Each structure stands twice: as C-alpha cells, then as structure tokens.
C-alpha cells in the first residue's frame, strides 16, 4: 500500500488536487495536511485523513509526515512573516526526517534559467529536495488564468485592458488544470523528474482579444511601460509594495520567463488543452 499526502489542502489548488487524487487511489490511502485541521476536516472527501501541516513548524510536520510515501508539496505564498525559503526548507527537512520517499513540488517554469527574482525561492527548494536525496518531480507551473481576473473583470466593466509585458508570452491555464495534473503525477508509478506545465502560449494582446470574443464587450487595450503600469496601479489604490510586485509579474512575462513551450500538461491530463477563450468561459 502506498500512502499519499498533500499539503495546503484548504487552499484552492490543494482542494482541486485532492478531488482528483481520490478518483485515482483509495481515499483511505490519502492524508490531507493543513494548518487549520478543523477547516480541512470539514471539506476533505470522505475517508481522507487530516493531519497538521504548518510549514513554520518543522517538528509537527515531521510527525505528520510519518508513514507518508509520496508527498505533493504545494509551494507557499511569498511575503509571510516566516520567509518562503525557510518554510520550504522546513518541509523538505521534515520529509527527509520522516522517511518520505517521493516529493512532487509545485515550482516555477524553467527554474534554472529564470531571470526573475520570483523564481529564486523555487530554485532554492528544488536544490534542497535534490540535496535531501529524495526522489522527486518538479512541477514547473506556468501562469494561472485566474491571475488575470482583476484585469479581465475590469475590462468587461468598461475599463481599459492595460499591460506592460509587450509581446511576451505566457501559458495561461486554469488553476484546476495544474492541480489535476499534479495529482495525476503523484499517483503515477513512473513519473518524470521535471514537468513543464503550461497552457497554450499567447500574448496579452491575444488574451484581450479572447476576452472580447467571450464577453461580447469592447474595451480599450493599452500596452504600456513598467513605470506607467506601476503608477496606474498606485492610482487605483494599491500600496507601493503590491504595485511593484504586480509590475514584476509583467516584467517576467515581458522578459520571456513564461515562454516555455511544452506538451507536458496535455500529456498528463490525457486530453488536448482548451483554448484560452474556452477556459475564460468558466471564470467570467
């Protein structure tokens, strides 16, 4: 019997991954890890066990990972009181101490060659897993389509569709697709070491056209520079740090960090990828 565990199971990604995993392996073989175990217990599928999973507490993580063979390690969000690097180091150390045999980790596209600072924590974590000697799959996820919802919803409401990524391409796909793929890799008996998961690569101009087509709305599309983009975010009420972070997303796309061609997502899902227009229909 193989025992599976998924971290962050009260989050959207974790919930979607858990939903797929219970369709692939017995629920009794699955452990859901979460900081808030009461919340997790109320929402996990019947038969799934719940254990404490706090990235800032290595001791409790080690205890919770006892008996786990295969772990889906969902990366945490940056900007917390405890750095993401430290949180991830705790998870890897706990997994090693608990004897976890395999980790599937949600990482960043083409991490070794990424030029954005946002990839640094992921590069650190990949190396930590390698150094721990744990068999692994790095799930290098491209961009969630939902990341663009504020821009999409705003344009449908009549505001300009503004971006600063130029002709840079991203592989937007629904978060649920990435989560489903992660669960399928976890359940796979012979997974690859690296998966470059991505939707079809398109530009922001292409995305804007798709939004117009699906919504039936017309709106102005504005390609601008980083500074003007940042100023616009601040004028809309974002604080300086958040505005700089959101602009960094534009910069990394402009610089080609998400332009990583791959068929891995379609291959693991076992079906052709939907067009971005079709995926938009489920979120707008």
TrEMBL record:
Pfam families: NmrA
Domain of life: Bacteria
Domain NmrA-like: 5-233
Regions annotated as coiled coil: none
Protein known as: NmrA-like domain-containing protein
């Amino acid at each position: 019997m193989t025992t599976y565990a998924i971290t962050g199971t009260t989050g959207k990604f974790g919930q979607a991954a858990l939903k797929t995993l219970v369709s692939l392996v017995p629920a009794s073989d699955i452990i859901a890890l979460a900081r808030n175990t009461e919340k997790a217990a109320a929402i996990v599928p019947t038969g799934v066990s719940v254990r404490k999973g706090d990235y800032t507490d290595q001791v409790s993580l080690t205890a919770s990972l006892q008996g786990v063979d295969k772990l889906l390690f969902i990366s945490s969000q940056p900007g917390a009181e405890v750095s993401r690097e430290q949180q991830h180091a705790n998870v890897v150390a706990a997994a090693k101490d608990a004897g976890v045999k395999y980790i599937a980790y949600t990482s960043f596209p083409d991490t070794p060659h990424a030029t954005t600072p946002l990839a640094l924590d992921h590069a650190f974590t990949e190396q930590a897993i390698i150094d721990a000697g744990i068999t692994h799959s790095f799930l290098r996820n491209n961009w969630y389509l939902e990341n663009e919802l504020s821009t999409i919803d705003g344009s449908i409401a009549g505001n300009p569709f503004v971006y600063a990524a130029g002709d840079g391409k991203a592989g937007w796909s629904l978060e649920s697709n990435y989560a489903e793929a992660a669960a399928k890799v976890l359940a796979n008996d012979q997974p690859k070491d690296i998966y470059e998961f991505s939707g079809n690569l398109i530009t922001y101009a292409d995305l804007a056209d798709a939004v117009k087509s699906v919504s039936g709305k017309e709106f102005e599309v504005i390609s601008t520079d980083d500074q003007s983009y940042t100023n616009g975010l601040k004028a809309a009420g974002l604080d300086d740090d958040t505005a700089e972070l959101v602009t960094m997303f534009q910069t990394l796309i402009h610089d080609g960090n998400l332009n990583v061609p791959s068929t891995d997502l379609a291959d693991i899902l076992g079906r052709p990828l939907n067009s971005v227009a079709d995926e938009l229909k489920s979120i707008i």
